[in-house]
Amino acid sequence: MTETFTLKGRTGDWEIVLGLEVHAQVASNSKLFSGAAVGFGAGPNEQVSLVDAAMPGMLPVLNRFCVEQAIRAGLGLKAKINLKSRFDRKNYFYPDLPQGYQISQFEFPIVGEGEVTVDRIDGSSFTVRIERLHLEQDAGKSIHDLSPTETYVDLNRSGTALMEIVSKPDMRSPEDAAAYVKKLRAILVTLGACDGDMEKGNLRADVNVSVCRPGDYEKFRETGSFSHLGTRCEIKNVNSYRFIQQAIHYEARRQIEILEDGGKIDQETRLFDPGKGETRSMRSKEEAHDYRYFPDPDLLPLEIDPAWVKEIEASLPELPDAKKARLMADYGLSAYDASVLISDADVAAFFEEAAKGRDAKLVANWTLNDLMGRLGKDGLEITASPIPAADIAGLVELIEKGTISSKIAKTVFDHMWAGEGAPAAIVDKHGLVQITDTGAIEAAVDALIAANPDKAEAVKEKPQAIGWFVGQVMKETGGKANPAAVNEILKAKLGL
Amino acid sequence: MAIDAATVRKVARLARIAEPEERIEPLVQELNGILQWIEQLAEVDTDGVEPLTSVVHATLPLRDDVVTDGGDAARVLSNAPKSTDGFYVVPKVVE
């Protein structure tokens, strides 16, 4: 049982309660209701149809692929697929929403309750209950800094399909919230429903934060009554794991300060400012939204043939939970290594390719520590790795065969990273083959002892001083001597 | 359910319709009249009747996920009161 995340206040301990609404852009070619392209980097208003621009008389026609992806995502969340759902209009005015309403699903979403099992770094796991998943349109983009007096509007994103995935308030720490998004992302990317690119905003989270006293949350879970929880604030559009955690930390502290000063929390929408690391109020209370949802008269209810759901279910790829179990069973990996591998389907695929016939634990270490570390430093994805999986396999093979030591392997890895090619060729070219020839090592040891008789005498009294000799021999051989052989020979020659 | 002047003002504001003050009271009367008329429908017993979602017996058409539209910013912008470099330009709005 992991300890409950607690924040210390002046008046005692506080706990936090988190619920997330994740917006995941459907990886479709065209928009939810129009044939305009979905994509990044096109010129302003180049990916806009007259439907997206809300010209009079234009009618929405639903994209089958988007419906299919919502169903796939629903199945991936072990959720109920609602065979009958409906599109509603969510009414508000903003320049980047030309319709004056967003087409969304309010009362009858396409996907109902489900759940996600989330892995923590310590190997433990917890469950987040999913309340619903629905399809909706994204808005356009307003640009406020191109002119001091005007706002520029680009509708390219307008009408792009989003899946909004709403969780129950089941997360209790900033780390758990980030881990949940990570797992959700892995599921959606594996399914191909969303590309998961958070930097481009294709996956982003609205984080609901409230604080309560120890014991209150348990009462809430028992009774289902929100009266046991504090008033929540919603932090909009947070698009990285780090920002999610920072925003939650800041917001929880802010709420605790207010409550401890005898104030009360206003339920409101807030924005996270990554530069300052703080959240600020987005809308005043007076402007509180009244969306006046009603069924969209342009769209009939969405009815799904159960046979289609069965067909989709049969076509699902191996999902992260199943993959984790398989990696642990087939390769003997730890729960932690397996959960890191499944958090990115590409990393898992890379690992499996490299691990074929090799020591899987070694391959996992080289992939997760050395390679991922380097890639992370250079901001590269594993798909852009300058070192192919076959070369990681080759490197591990050289270690397994004793051709190189783990230490030399680091050097070989550096050459591989520099683009020098296959590890075996690098070892040849730089003469990095481990010296296992005992004759050569013995010669080096003999020379060393002859040159340092006093030290050789001293080591008999203080056996741990052998370390100095090992270091010298390794230095003498350019680090290529087999450390186990060096130790053995030294012990024999020094009479230990 | 009855509508008062404050509700009329609120609804007008939400719909961005400017109603002069002298129109408010007549609107209260008109809207209450409409609501009363609709409430009469509640007298019909609809127990066990599925809500009617459409008067046509059609299923929601779905289209294939192919790009068939867009790529014509000039056309999209042709009715805009102001545009610059392919953007719509509107009075400054800041959240």
List the helices and strands and how they pair.
The complex is a heterodimer of chains A (496) and B (95).
Chain A (H helix, E strand, L loop, with lengths): L5 E4 L2 E14 L36 E2 H13 L7 E2 L2 E4 L9 E4 L9 E6 L5 E13 L3 E3 L6 E5 L6 E7 L6 H18 L11 E10 L3 H8 L9 E6 L2 H20 L8 E5 L4 E4 L12 E2 L6 E2 L2 H9 L5 H12 L3 H8 L2 H11 L4 H18 L11 H12 L5 H12 L5 H7 L8 H14 L1 H9 L4 H11 L6 H12 L2
Parallel strand pairs in A: 13-14
Antiparallel strand pairs in A: 1-2, 2-11, 2-12, 4-17, 5-6, 5-16, 7-8, 8-11, 9-10, 12-13, 14-15
Helix pairs in contact in A: 2-4, 6-7, 8-9, 8-10, 10-11, 13-15, 13-16, 15-16
Chain B lengths: L4 H10 L6 H20 L21 E2 L9 H5 L5 E2 L2 E5 L4
In short:
The complex is a heterodimer of chains A (496) and B (95). Chain A is an alpha+beta fold and 496 residues long.
The radius of gyration over CA of chain A amounts to 29 Å
Distance between the termini of chain A: 48 Å
Inertia-based shape of chain B: flat
The number of E-state strands of chain B comes to 3
Protein structure class of chain A: alpha+beta
Indicate the low-confidence ranges of chain B by residue numbers.
none
Output mean pLDDT of chain A. 92
Helix content of chain B: 25-40%
- State the strand order across the main sheet of chain B: 2-3
Helix content of chain A: 25-40%
Low-confidence stretches of chain A: none
**Sheet with most strands of chain A:** 9 strands, mixed
Helix-strand pattern of chain B? HHEHEE
Distance between the termini of chain B: 34 Å
- Tally of DSSP helical segments of chain A: 16
The major pleated sheet of chain B works out as: 2 strands, antiparallel
User: Radius of gyration of chain B from the CA trace?
Assistant: 22 Å
Helical stretch count of chain B?
Answer: 3
Bin the strand percentage of chain B: 5-15%
Would you report the number of β strands of chain A? 17
